Amino acid sequence: MARQSRRLSLTQWDVFTSVPLEGNSLAVFSDGRGLSDSEMQAVAKEMNLSETTFILPRDPETERERGVRVRIFTVQEELPFAGHPTLGTAYALRGESGSPEIALELNVGKVPVRFDENPGLPVFGEMTQVDPEFGVKHDAEALSRAIGLRVEDLDATLPIETVSTGLPYVITPLKSLSTIQKLRVDLPRASEYLEKTGSKFLYFVTRETVDAAARLHARMLFYNGEDPATGSAAGTAAAWMVAHGVAHPDERVLIEQGIEMQRPSRIFVRAARRDNRIVNVRVGGNAIEVLRGEVFL
Q: pLDDT tens-digit profile of 166-182?
């Protein structure tokens, strides 16, 4: 007798791009109700993408008030917040409805995503992240020793700083495009260093870019390899840029990422300054559906 299997519907999206097979891939499960935490984690590992999301539908009134409940998993752990899963899941929820806003309730809280439609252009979505928290400023020599870089590879004109909009990143400015393109990191030692400093990941940036229109070129290397686009890190970078004069308050600037791995991503960011505080961090871009299917459990 054939076993009874549960069928889980999913769509896969390429996020921070309007071109299929570029940007950062995301699997979105439209109804994760009834799955245990361990099952969600196992499914995310099976997907083997940077992140996988599970939508947990609730009654319409609760969703209007609190947002659509969504959980985010990497291949290894659940995250309280991540950028490209938030944006991609909002695109999946919006579908063809034309809704101007989709709100998600993540483990970090309520995150709204607003959409703009202009004739002849792909739909543009922009999420508002929680206000940034600025953490420790790192010693260049200590950090370079810990992660296997030369101290002269770092951009001495800008601080190495932990910033969080739900996930703490060490914004690590490098001197040149050639340095970031040839980047090699001792990930086990880097993980030890990050744990000691209360940070989650390193986000490497440089002001030298491939696209002259971009403000920063970025890379994010972590336990699952390299991330083609990191929206949560881009939000922290937006706050960091405004804090240190790399971008003006409320100026929308482009971060390019994923170029070294042939998954070019375009992440548009901005942040405001109010009463000497950085607030209203916004991260936006496009997303395109590339796959539909089912998983049998």
A: 999 999 999 999 999 99
